[in-house]
Each structure stands twice: as C-alpha cells, then as structure tokens.
Design brief:
Elements lengths: L2 E6 L5 H13 L6 E6 L9 H14 L6 E11 L2 H14 L3 E5 L7 H6 L2 E4 L7 H19 L8
Parallel strand pairs: 1-2, 1-4, 3-4, 3-5
Length: 155
Amino acid sequence: MKLTILAVGERMPAWAEAAAADYLKRMPREARVSLLTVKAEKRAGQSGDTLKQAEARRLLERVPPRERLVALDERGRQVDTHELAELLRAWLDDGRDTTLVIGGADGLAADVLSRAETSLALSRLTLPHALARVLLAEQLYRAISLLRGHPYHRE
C-alpha cells in the first residue's frame, strides 16, 4: 500500500519542510508516505468557492478513481492516536493506496469532500497549513509506532 499526503500549497517554511520530512523518513518500508503538493489558486478577487473549485480539480487529478481518499477537514471526525492507529491498520490490511488531502486556505471543495471515503479533523482549531502537514506526518508516524509496539508512543 502507498500512503500519500496531498496538500494545496507548494512553498512552506523551511522548518515545516524539515519537520515533515523527518517524520516521513522514519516511516517503515511497509507504510512509506510521500508528500505531494498542488499549486494554490491565487486570490485575485475570486471568491472562496471559485478558489476551492480550481484547487479541487488539481487535487482530484492526482487521486486515481479506486484509491481511498481521506479528507482532512475541520468538520471531519476527530480521532485520538489509538483510533488513527486502528484506521491505519485497516488501511494497511486492505492494501488499497490511500491519499490524505489537506486543502488550501479556504478548505476543501464539496467535490473533494463527496469523493472522500472519510473525513478526519486534526483539530477543531484552525491550523496553518505548514503546521497541519507536520502534525499529520507526526501522527502517522506515531500511529505506525503504536501498531509496531515501538516506544515512541508512551502512555
């Protein structure tokens, strides 16, 4: 199975790039995660819905039709680390490639949300996109560590 984080926005601060890359390189071979980006739409007087639609087209082009799409959305289901680990276990057992999508500044368009198999919230707080990427990468690493009995996750 291939795991992908697909995010709107190409240029992130160096600290965010380094932190996300660090967690992703720690992932074991059976749960490798790649980070792909699509260009954010320029505001230039466009409405939030117009921006989200343009970004949605770019996002959905990158996700094959039979691949599992998981939307990261503030209105999604909040899970704790154990629940995320169980989701990850189910995805690994299923073997289907999975893409986790982080939207742009205006969020995800209805097209992306309706295509998603599930929608998860990292937090009810509004997070900067750079921090959302780092948080998602760290939680995926923590979840796989928990599944493998690695001491990274302590209780």
